[in-house]
């Protein structure tokens, strides 16, 4: 049982950290294209991958880690490396859920090609604010995302 929990813990860490690294690569490469359709696709894919890989990774790390501690009675407190590890892990999970997920949702809205205001001729027209983005798409954002590095 302990070996299974250890496997789940390590596999969860690989999912958690691996998806973070992969998401950054997707986002950087998409932004460098400066193509809104590509950026929108990459942003939607990154958000989907977070729910498919990051969240299960978090759950597997927790199940495996705390399961191992319960199986072999290790103190969860009193060992500095374990306290730091737990604290940093929960901080990373909190930042992901409270900061990153809402930011991803806003970036998807801003980068969606359908957010462009098209005329019947198919040409993009500027909205009342002078931008190609409608006001509702950028509500809550200070500025549009930088498209070029």
Strand and helix map with partners:
Blueprint (H helix, E strand, L loop, with lengths): L1 H32 L2 H36 L8 H32 L23 H4 L11
Helix pairs in contact: 1-2, 2-3
Mean pLDDT: 76
Secondary structural class: mainly alpha
- Total domains, how many? 1
Q: Low-confidence parts lasting 5 or more residues at pLDDT below 50? A: 117-143
Could you state the order of secondary-structure elements as H and E?
A: HHHH
Q: What is the oligomer described by this structure?
A: single chain
Helix count from the secondary structure assignment: 4
Shape: elongated
Beta-sheet strand percentage?
Answer: under 5%
Q: How far apart, in Å, are the first and last alpha carbons?
A: 48 Å
Helix content: 55-70%
Care to count the β-strands?
A: 0
Question: Radius of gyration, rounded?
Answer: 21 Å
Largest sheet: none
């Amino acid at each position: 049982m302990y070996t299974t929990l250890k496997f789940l813990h390590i596999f969860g860490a690989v999912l958690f950290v691996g998806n973070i690294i992969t998401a950054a690569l997707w986002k950087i490469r998409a932004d460098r294209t400066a193509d809104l359709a590509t950026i929108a696709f990459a942003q939607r894919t990154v958000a989907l991958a977070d729910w498919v890989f990051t969240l299960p990774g978090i759950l597997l790390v927790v199940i495996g880690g705390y399961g191992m501690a319960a199986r072999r009675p290790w103190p969860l407190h009193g060992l500095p490396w374990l306290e730091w590890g737990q604290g940093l892990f929960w901080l990373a999970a909190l930042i992901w859920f409270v900061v990153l997920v809402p930011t991803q949702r806003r970036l998807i809205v801003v980068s969606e090609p359908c957010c462009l205001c098209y005329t019947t001729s198919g040409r993009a027209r500027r909205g009342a604010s002078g931008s190609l983005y409608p006001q509702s798409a950028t509500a809550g954002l200070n500025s549009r995302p930088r498209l070029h590095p």
